[in-house]
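2024-03-11 09:14:02 DEBUG pipeline.ingest accepted 1 chain
2024-03-11 09:14:02 DEBUG pipeline.ingest length=316
2024-03-11 09:14:03 DEBUG pipeline.predict start
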Amino acid sequence: MKSPLFLLVLLFASATASAQQPTSIRPPEIDSAIVAYNAKDFSKAKEWALKATQINGNLREAWEVLGFSAQSLNDHPTVVSAGSRLAQIVPNERTGWYLQFIGYYRQERLDLALPPMRELCKIDPATCASSNIGLILKQISQDSLGALDSTFTTPDGSVKMTLPKSWHSTVRDDGKTMNWFLTLEPIKSDSDAFSVGTTLRWVRAMTGSFVIEEKNNNAPFLVDFWDQFIAAQMKGFTPHRRTLVDSLPVSSGTWSGFVRTLDFQFKPEYPVQRRIEAILARKDEVFTYTFECDFPRWGVYEPRFRQAIASMSLPK
């Protein structure tokens, strides 16, 4: 996963002993850990720091040395564990939140990295900016303020929804079919692709474009018809993977149909995409929407997709 992590400034060059504990409960193992850490013997520093935490689980120094030693050893689960305990001991300081962030981030668990990233930015805005954590949050539509959103609207005002204001909107409408793209990357031509976003389609006057008997011009028939029509359009372009995760009936105002979640992979060398897609209909009209992103980022974007769906205003 490409990201601006390479820009991240090394926030904490060494473990410090800024919080003093009473001598009676400060085991000598912590001094051994600090000496080993300063000598860049990170394996030994981690070993001594772990012993110190077992003797005194409230010793901040021990968790700091343990976390930063584990970071140097690329032991990401231990980094997270140390950061979690530090955040409990000193919740108003940045170190524990930083360690949790970097541990999860290195494991490509952006969904789990988000809460400590936000907390660090809340506690220390200057570090958030100087370390480029704020930039990372912005680039994944999760800025440090939580959600800077806009209500996107089609030119005729028929469809509205709320998404990050940094996203891009492209509408194409020939009077019969409207295609609307709301995407992280801009869509300028038919050959452009996006990694995160939504595609909406509104087809009007179905009987004018397809051979549909009047008795079948109702929501249940049109939903099934459109699902089969799209499947037929895909013949010859069979995806490598198309797995149904779930499917539920859905309705909104005069519209009814279904919404489902799919895992989709067009070719083996392409990343797996997860999609929420819906087909809704009413007399002589079909409305569809798809929200998608690559699977590793699904935990980050799914909440935003769900919020957008909840905010969606469909044609009256």
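2024-03-11 09:14:41 DEBUG pipeline.report The beta strands are 149-153, 160-164, 168-173, 177-183, 196-203, 241-252, 255-265, 273-282, 285-294.
2024-03-11 09:14:41 DEBUG pipeline.predict end
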